[in-house]
Amino acid sequence: MDIEGALVSTDWLAKSLERPNLRVFDTTVYLQVMADGTGYQANSGHGAWAQAHIPGAGFMDLIEEFSDNKNSTPFMMPPAREFCDRAAKHGIGDDSLVVLYNDGLPMWSTRAWWMFRSVGFDNVVVLDGGWKKWQREGRPTNDDTPNHAPSNLSSNPRPQMWVDKNDMLEIVKSGGACTLNALSPDVYSGRINRYGRPGHIPSSHNVFYDNLVDPDTGTFLSQELLLKQFAVSGSLEAERVVIYCGGGISATMDALALHIVGHNNIAIYDGSMSEWIKDELLPLELGDTP
């Protein structure tokens, strides 16, 4: 693979669209806050993809096809073998180069990036700036449906890239990792009760995902600026970092940003607040400090 890191530019992708092993996917999900202010309604971006997308791009359904729908908590990672089999049906094989993008902030692309890497597939990158940057630059689009033959994708799981509720509770008790909350400061502090119980998991620091991208271009900040975002949290010096959010989605933006600056011992709490708040015995802290 002739690229380095987790990101590719729109210019690189435009020049690479004819590569035979390239597989591009729109991962868009649109979130709408529920009427009572707690939780979100997730709506597929498939309809928008069907109208216009990057030439050759398929659609990756993170709501249904690439989530464990046997779990009552939404958006949970499916078993690795199932994930790989589903990806293979879309023409993704061991020799593929997968480029992911979405409309809006890149949390859905980073989520899929994290999922691919957690099954041992590293030939995956996120389009920096995503769909909006591609459109803004006037680059080509079409509404064609790609027709890649099914392939074979090996499963080599990295379970250390995920933690569950019990792992998270043990970390709270033992301080065995630096924990980060990727949500907005208002949700972190409890000023906004977005998930049914306000606050954050004790000892977790707040690194808001929205602060990791340039508001004008939608691209990730430079390494220098990303280091500043994480400096106060202690995550840069920590041996291990565990990140959570509302449902294991925006936390992956923090994970990719840490990956950019060279931290590789990272895990995502997959259930995140959506799971944690269900158990009233699990602690939450209010306020702006861990």
In words, what does this structure look like?
The model has no long low-confidence stretch (mean pLDDT 96). The protein has 2 domains: 7-157, 3-Layer(aba) Sandwich (Oxidized Rhodanese, domain 1); 160-276, Oxidized Rhodanese, domain 1 (3-Layer(aba) Sandwich). The radius of gyration is 18 Å and the shape is globular. The protein has helices spanning 10-16, 46-51, 80-89, 107-118, 130-136, 165-174, 185-189, 223-231, 251-260, 272-276, and strands at 7-8, 22-26, 29-33, 40-44, 57-59, 97-101, 124-127, 162-163, 178-181, 205-206, 241-244, 266-269. Helix 4 (107-118) crosses helix 9 (251-260). The protein is built from 10 helices and 12 strands. The chain starts with 6 loop residues before the first strand and ends in a 14-residue tail after the last helix. The strands form 3 sheets. It has a 5-stranded parallel sheet. A 5-stranded parallel sheet has the order 8-12-11-9-10. Strands 3-4 form a two-stranded antiparallel sheet.
Mean pLDDT: 96
Counting H and I runs of at least 4 residues, what is the number of helices? 10
Proportion of β residues? 15-25%
Count of strand segments: 12
Query: N- to C-terminal separation?
Result: 41 Å
Order of helices and strands: EHEEEHEHEHEHEHEHEHEHEH
